[in-house]
Amino acid sequence: MDSETMSLRSSLEEMLDSLRRRGEQPTDLPPALPARPNARGRLPLARRSLPVDFKIECKTSKGTKKKGGEIEDWILKNGEGAIFKNGIFGRKRIRAENQPEESPYFEMAEGNRFKGRDEKVDDLAASTSSVGRSDEKMKNAADYVLKKELRAWCWLPTGKWELGKVQSISGNNARILLSDAKVLTVAVENLSPANPVMLDNVDDLIKLSYLNEPSVLHNLKQRYSHDMIYTKAGRILIAFNPFKDIPLYGNDYMVAYKQKTSDSPHVYAVADTAFSEMMRVGTSQSIVISGESGAGKTETAKFAMQYLVAVCGGSEIECEVLQTSCILEAFGNAKTCRNDNSSRFGKLIELHFNPSGRICGAKIETFLLEKSRVVQQARGERSFHVFYQLCAGAPPLLKEQLNLKPPYEYEYLKQNDCLTIDGVDDAKRFHKLMEALDIVKISKEDQEKAFAMLAAVLWLGNIAFTVIDNEDHVEINMSEGTAFVCM
Ligand SMILES: Nc1ncnc2c1ncn2[C@@H]1O[C@H](COP(=O)(O)OP(=O)(O)OP(=O)(O)O)[C@@H](O)[C@H]1O
């Protein structure tokens, strides 16, 4: 095992140990998530014009009937041989028992919508006994789709989804009129039902009649294009990174969410719900923020903390809590190819409240810091912010004491020729860092020790060695770095 893996393992072990120490069993299990529809296509309500609660039937090319999980397995194994591989829309051919007045699927709506899995399998078994009628039913379904000029998403060979209207269906192919007036012939298995226009821009994905991939992406994209970066998916909040300042934050918004006069999806609403539930139920609440690098997790966590601090306090401790971000980011964040302020560690932030709902303490645990970044960074990336901040912003006396040079003088910092970040003033950030350290009451003496350690690390990187024989023995080169580190 190499040393890096060893250090990662030990960090991981440390984290697990610390989690274990925090209690073997969570005493505050989160409430069960509400039942959510199948992501492949939630069946719409009976009153809507689209097909509802169809049954699945399956017959192999040899005529044997299959049901339940067998169907899925069989379709996967048999590919093109699966005659029911795809219906009018999507993977499943669906059929209704009775002919509705308007929709060929009407009858199934109320009775079967909330049936459990076993009941549905029973339905499936029943439905396979009437395969003979399926062609007629499918024709009705096709007629219905055509009559209503239903919109559908087409999966194009280019790998994109395109919205169009179904013009005609013949065999396994459908002709689709696209928005640019082009007509495409698409295999029906490459179609997914689109939601009616009235559902454009809905603020909660569970309001969509069809929860398929293109419909979800379309909805999120539309909202994003109107700077609506938050969307709900039931109890989950989806947050998009706008990469620009959007006027969605600040006092007025906080008041609106506190007084519940706004119910648009927002990180403030999530923080408010967590706080209200904590006060109501009397147990700890967690907000889990996840996403890929650059998705906006750190910013979102900061907005959530700002909200909690604003509505639950006004005393000194809250101010200290907010200042921790500045310190953590200086020491643990760095510029990467994906994010100019990427957190190179994980963190667990606890805010402690007293019985009256005021913040009375906080605890931050960090884990898995990417230590190797100190000595090596990928092209276009920097080491941790604090090194550049120290070099740029240290007061003259400190600079002299620590023999500080500009970043390009240090091997650890200059290796990638990436010394600055557009729009970021490292010197100013250093002053903010010192203020934050003062606010969280780190003594001047401890601050100086920390800065001396950082300077020592930089100088250590400047020590060079020369191989002096064939057995790879080395000798240290005398240089400014060597002299300074040995002092
Ligand atoms: N809600 C927002 N409003 C404005 N800008 C934002 C918002 N969220 C993120 N950003 C911008 O995107 C950048 C990256 O976001 P952030 O650092 O929060 O991502 P992250 O998910 O924490 O990334 P990493 O995992 O690399 O740490 C921020 O520095 C900020 O410029």
Automatic annotation (TrEMBL):
ATP binds at residues 291-298. One of its GO terms (molecular function) is microfilament motor activity. Signal peptide: none annotated. Residues 1-10 have a biased composition (Polar residues). Residues 147-196 form the Myosin N-terminal SH3-like domain. One of its GO terms (cellular component) is myosin complex. One of its GO terms (biological process) is actin filament organization. Keywords: Actin-binding, ATP-binding, Calmodulin-binding, Motor protein, Myosin, Nucleotide-binding. Residues 1-39 are annotated as: Disordered. Pfam families: Myosin_head, SH3_VIII-1_N. Belongs to the TRAFAC class myosin-kinesin ATPase superfamily. Myosin family. This is Myosin-2-like. It comes from Dioscorea cayennensis subsp. rotundata (White Guinea yam). The gene is LOC120283986.
